[in-house]
Amino acid sequence: MTPAHRICGLLLIVALLINGSALASDLDESLDTPRTRPLSRFDHDTHNEVADLEEACALCHHLFDENGDIMVEESSDEMACRDCHDAGDKGLPKTEAAFHNRCKGCHLENQSGPITCGQCHTKKQK
Questions:
Q1: CATH number for the domain harbouring residue 94
Q2: For the chain, which terminal residue's Cβ has fewer other Cβ atoms within 10 angstroms, N or C?
Q3: What is the distance between the alpha carbons of residues 99 and 53, in angstroms, rounded to a whole number?
Q4: What pTM was computed for the model?
Q5: DSSP state letter for 88
Q6: Average predicted confidence (pLDDT) for the chain
Q7: Do 13 and 62 form a contact (C-beta atoms < 8 A)?
């Protein structure tokens, strides 16, 4: 990954953290309705290879220090996303909202990847 990719990724994280609260609260309200689509299918290794993110684990598997700064050299890959995102007292978006914000935001910024519900949440073929 180039330094420019790393900087863009970190800027995306900051932007999502700043704007994520409003986006997440709007999304969380809409999540109270019954789901009409299945969970998204995500091939972690293929995605990261195609997106050239093999060395950028902290973009998604992030940890923050006591000042709220991302610890770039640290990774939460051994933890469940819900351990932090659904704890309720940390002001973080819920897990589902965090996934939507992170994935869709990155795809929009890079003008590549799915951004609509049906592109990620594909119904199983019979």
A1: 3.90.10.10
A2: C
A3: 16
A4: 0.61
A5: S
A6: 76
A7: yes
